[in-house]
Amino acid sequence: MEKKPARHTRERIAACALALFNAHGAAAVTPVAIALEIGISPGNLHYHFHNKGELVGELLSRYEAEIAPLLEAASLSDDVEDLWQFAHRLFDTLARYRFLFRDLNALMADYPAIAPRLKRLIARKEDAARRALAGLSQSGQLVADEAARGMLAVNLSLIGTCWLAYDEARSGTAANAPARGASQMMLAAAPWLTSDAGARLARLSRDALARPGQRG
Amino acid sequence: MEKKPARHTRERIAACALALFNAHGAAAVTPVAIALEIGISPGNLHYHFHNKGELVGELLSRYEAEIAPLLEAASLSDDVEDLWQFAHRLFDTLARYRFLFRDLNALMADYPAIAPRLKRLIARKEDAARRALAGLSQSGQLVADEAARGMLAVNLSLIGTCWLAYDEARSGTAANAPARGASQMMLAAAPWLTSDAGARLARLSRDALARPGQRG
Question: Whereabouts does the entry annotate DNA binding, in residue ranges (chains A, B) (predicted)?
Fold first, then answer.
């Protein structure tokens, strides 16, 4: 009989931790609860992750790996269709790691080792938004000076960081939250667009809303 | 010798709890820490507030009492100057009770009794924004149909709920955060305004930024 590979157990722990953290917040979930959920001993879990901070760090690494190419592509964008696609992909990724930005300051206080990484992620999000807006401005699809683009980038990043937490607090449901978040983000950018780019964005929005559950 | 009035002790407890909750988040502060801080026994604190949930509830009541007339006035507004004043007052109040929206979902999960009240507060914030935008639209200072105004109201409420938490996470400082939050909120509304109303808002903004530490 083959021995179960350690890699497999590590994966199961990470997947289970992610699901439980997303459902209840990282603060409310103990390593013992994770071990119980997947039917291993707390000692076995401890062999793979010495504490909850290591688990949070591992999941943050996965989020960073997924979000980095997305932010890179967004910052090179000069078209409104790219912005639309970006918003949807961003919120899909955010939803899969929603615990990271659910109680952001508590998470940073509880795990000081990962706080600078979360801070850097937000800065990179703002930077990607700023560059995308500069691209749209250069290609004549957006009318806003650099100061306004800077503040708009902060609002876009705020929506792209806090939407899921805000929406959960107000509606108590996660249903369709990523798509609604993407729409709220596009609404923030829309009035700065020239009429042609704005009309294209409105069409994408309308088409997406006409097909609930799907993406444009 | 006069006996110290119970009312006075209750006030000291509430003020100290607010300061500690704001600094560290409600989850990180124990009743014993509050009692120690103001030099009373845990038993005396327990006489006034039976648990942390009661303390959080009392502070939430104070926030509700301060924010209610503000939201009422905002929803009756039909002028851009009112909107500007509202944003500044909102963020000043938020800053004094910042723990309430710092780790919002964790707070709602930790104190289920106050969760519906926080949810209702967010709904009232969105409603006030929606009515203010309808007023600006009727007086010809804002151009947006009802659907766009509804989504913009959600973005304004999102900024007016999450800004301090977001800004703390990205900058690590609370310095001038309310004024910056008010500016971010106004930036969200600005492009929807007619050129005259927009110019007046831009002038208010410029004047305020030229007098750092003061308000316009």
Answer: 30-49
